[in-house]
From TrEMBL:
This is Glycoside-hydrolase family GH114 TIM-barrel domain-containing protein. Coiled coil: none annotated. The lineage of its organism: Bacteria, Bacillati, Actinomycetota, Actinomycetes, Pseudonocardiales. It comes from Kibdelosporangium banguiense. PANTHER family: PELA.
Length: 236
């Protein structure tokens, strides 16, 4: 018997929380943090685990597809998305993650329209290759607004990360009003597409977390609120 519907989605990059994750319908996790048995334990309890995939940054050892520049926040090397070796590397990772029993993938680092716009067609091709390899698994894209509307034909859902709040030097804070207005217009555009839409926000106080959830709810978006490293789960 399937358990009652739980919270819609969680983003958790820590470990040792199988029981807590089992209270969500869908969870995004780092596949190397969980064993095949852990994944199976989630699936049998009605959870759909999604594995994290970065499509334009590489945190691995030096490789021919890497650019010289790195992400200043997380340290990963930016990549030449169209390099055949990068595509092979990503698809091999997808195959390995599927063998763990994952029920889909979270496609991250899609926002390259301002940094490497020449790679956008290659990025769309890579997403299409993942779609072909994994169908009918669930694909959730993180933002990727520069790839729309074509991206919507290849994925099942889009995540609007940092919809209402963001990291700042002092911790976390709402976006200023002009940015919130821009985000509202993007949300309306996403909701006009034939995909599921979620929000992910960051907060360190109950007040900011509730504000983020309430604002996302006005757009019909389930919202998960976490900390910057997504290493904690909210209290039940």
């Amino acid at each position: 018997m399937r358990r009652p519907l739980g919270e819609p989605i969680a983003f958790y990059y820590g470990t040792n929380q199988v029981d807590r994750l089992a209270t969500f319908d869908r969870v995004v996790l780092q596949s190397d943090a969980y064993s095949e048995q852990d994944i199976a334990a989630l699936v049998v309890r009605g959870v759909r685990p999604l594995g994290y995939l970065s499509l334009s940054e590489d945190v691995g050892p030096a490789a021919e597809w890497q650019r010289a520049d790195r992400n200043p926040d997380w340290g990963g090397a930016f990549v030449h998305v169209g390099h055949p070796g990068w595509s092979d590397h990503v698809l091999a990772k997808v195959r390995a993650m599927r063998r763990l029993g994952l029920r889909g993938f979270f496609l991250d680092t899609l926002n390259i329209e301002l940094t490497f716009p020449q790679d956008l067609p290659h990025l769309l091709t890579l997403v299409a290759a993942i779609r072909e390899l994994t169908y009918p698994d669930y694909l959730l894209a993180n933002r990727g607004f520069g790839l729309l509307p074509d991206l919507a034909d290849l994925v099942d859902g889009v995540l609007f990360e940092s919809f209402t709040s963001r990291w700042v030097e002092a911790g976390y804070a709402p976006w200023p009003p002009d940015v919130l207005e821009v985000h509202s217009r993007y949300a309306e555009m996403l909701l006009g597409l034939d995909i599921e839409v979620y929000a992910l926000d960051y907060a360190d106080t109950p007040r900011l977390a509730e504000y983020a959830r309430a604002r996302a709810a006005r757009f019909g978006m389930p919202c998960f609120v976490g900390t910057r490293d997504l290493g904690t789960l909210p209290a039940r």
